[in-house]
């Protein structure tokens, strides 16, 4: 399981490599034959020197729960202070520098610095600290002692939080037709997350997080008048510094996530021929994982040579056939080939031990996606778009080896009414594929009637509507709504139906030169139905889950007071989420719900001391409450040891005085 998660993580990192996009702006025009000395600006002056602002904020925080730090940026209580800066510098030769910092000293902060000369070179350095807090008073009957979980007679209290510290350095050079860049990034992740072990009863633990991820990117770009190409390399190495875990009476009850590394080489390009633009990309990658394994009975493997090779390719074409019609298409190919070692060893079957040999399975995934689309301008007020998408997936050793999704969609844009923009989109898709559970490796362990939702036949219908109206020059209204429904008509055991619908409203009012007002409201509903079987046969109990989310916000700013020196403002946000689960067997019974809400208010006064200096007084208040029926106190259930009730119910206050100086 750890290997799969790390491979997914590495894949996401690979996808973050620089994205290629051609630049056909005026700044890229070929001016080699233009006598530029005849067009020099005689009155232009270089804006040299410093500009921007620096500030220092100091204040007081009062909170009842560390969870409030997710909103306030720091878990500090009492007096706090932090500097901020956004400063730019430029000299007469065109060299520039930019420094930006935010809440330095807080557990959520960043600093960015760049320097160089546009069109020649740039150097960037970034620092970011991201901390997320789950609970400040998690409890456990186990505490850590050099990789061993030791029982304690008194509950051990600790903080469930994770911190990520990132440092990145990047350099880029440009000269005429080519451009090169290199980037190095390192991230340290630490803290605690909730996990569980079997001893043989389930025990929830606070799992130590201590890992480092280093990544390196380098590339070269070559471009011409109507083409551009890029060759790049990306490498990533993950190192887990956390130890495997044991109990005082049982060794190796938890295996730490193994180290791994990933490498990728990509070649991409884009070419424009008259009104046709063609682009493509070809990527090859390799991911390896070669840590030692924990020894256990029935498994003689001491080391597992994990290796996955990936191949990705993309081809896109878009062409303007006439002043009214544009057509396009694309093909995406992705292949994940698992070349990891395969071993034979004795293994428990579903019922008992039968002395037969089993093998660990190396699964492969191949994906092809085809897209065709067209955009037609019926008239100045009506534009129509339509398209067809098809995705084909082939999974080896899966309950269903082949699936294909076909989607038809269309979008109509209407501008026929003054100051009104209407967009309507409709989509219909269908998933089908090969025979389900044709693989002996999975069919013997699962209910033959069960269908996994991501493999099952599915019909999806989706409708979206958005309206933008500007009835007055000081008022704008945005309304959007969506409805989507998924039907799994062939599923007898598993997810049988789901629907997702919601509405959003945004208002912006510039009432006068000094008064601005905004407001928004959104609500979303997600409902799903599932059929299950306690008797390992046909469905004999059912689950209905109803989720609801509400967000409401408003704010006002009032300026022009005290001879245009004072601006007052207020912002308010309310959010609410609710999840109800109902079990139907002989009757319908609530399973236990989840409920949370949040009130957040900010009041501020901004006073201009002079043209360069200003003071800002801010008061923030947060009221947060949640309750999860699944949360239980320590040792409340006899068969499960929990981390205690991790629900929240608190008030938090923050008062800050900020002094800023405009350079």
- State Rg: 30 Å
Number of strands: 31
> Largest sheet, described in full?
26 strands, antiparallel, barrel
Number of helices: 4
* Mean pLDDT value: 87
End-to-end CA span: 54 Å
How would you describe the shape? globular
Structural class assignment: mainly beta
Give start-end ranges of low-pLDDT stretches: 1-44, 348-355
Assembly type of the chains comes to single chain
Q: What is the share of helical residues? A: under 10%
Beta-strand percent range: over 45%
Map the helices and strands.
Layout: H1 2-15, E1 49-63, H2 69-72, E2 78-90, E3 96-102, E4 109-117, E5 121-145, E6 148-175, E7 178-198, E8 202-223, E9 227-240, E10 245-247, E11 250-254, E12 260-273, E13 276-289, E14 306-320, E15 325-338, E16 344-346, E17 357-359, E18 365-379, E19 382-395, E20 402-414, E21 420-433, H3 440-443, E22 458-472, E23 475-487, E24 494-510, E25 515-532, E26 541-560, H4 561-564, E27 566-584, E28 588-590, E29 594-608, E30 613-628, E31 648-662
Parallel strand pairs: 6-10
Antiparallel strand pairs: 1-2, 1-31, 2-3, 3-4, 4-5, 5-6, 6-7, 7-8, 8-9, 9-12, 10-11, 12-13, 13-14, 14-15, 15-18, 16-17, 18-19, 19-20, 20-21, 21-22, 22-23, 23-24, 24-25, 25-26, 26-27, 27-28, 27-29, 29-30, 30-31
3D architecture notes:
The protein is mainly β. The protein has helices at 2-15, 69-72, 440-443, 561-564; strands spanning 49-63, 78-90, 96-102, 109-117, 121-145, 148-175, 178-198, 202-223, 227-240, 245-247, 250-254, 260-273, 276-289, 306-320, 325-338, 344-346, 357-359, 365-379, 382-395, 402-414, 420-433, 458-472, 475-487, 494-510, 515-532, 541-560, 566-584, 588-590, 594-608, 613-628, 648-662. The strands form two sheets. It has a 26-stranded antiparallel β-barrel. Strands 16-17 form a two-stranded antiparallel sheet. The two termini are 54 Å apart. InterPro entries: Decahaem-assoc_OM_MtrB/PioB (IPR020016).
